[in-house]
Amino acid sequence: TDAADIKAGQNIFQTNCVACHMADGGGGIGPNLTDENWVLGGGIKNVFKTVSEGGRSGKGMIAWKAQLRPSDMQNLASYILTLQGTNPPNGKEPQGEIYEPTEEIGMR
Description:
Elements: H1 3-16, H2 18-21, E1 37-38, H3 43-53, H4 70-82, E2 97-98
Antiparallel strand pairs: 1-2
């Protein structure tokens, strides 16, 4: 939640993620990151795991663990969570399920 870490995560997002998730996180090729729905689970642990390990097999996002340090992935995941509820204009329709915090323990 440190402002400098969030800013670092924003910079990583702008460099690596906007092509698929758009600059506002509203989604393009990739899902909308601003609503409460998540394809692979929300919350810091699930978002970190998705960044690290990649998206659904054959459907998209690469595993970033080879390109980003763990601290960078942590900052990126933290920044992504700040996008929740921002509801940008022209955001992509919700995909996945509404995230319930209790799901984080199981790390789907």
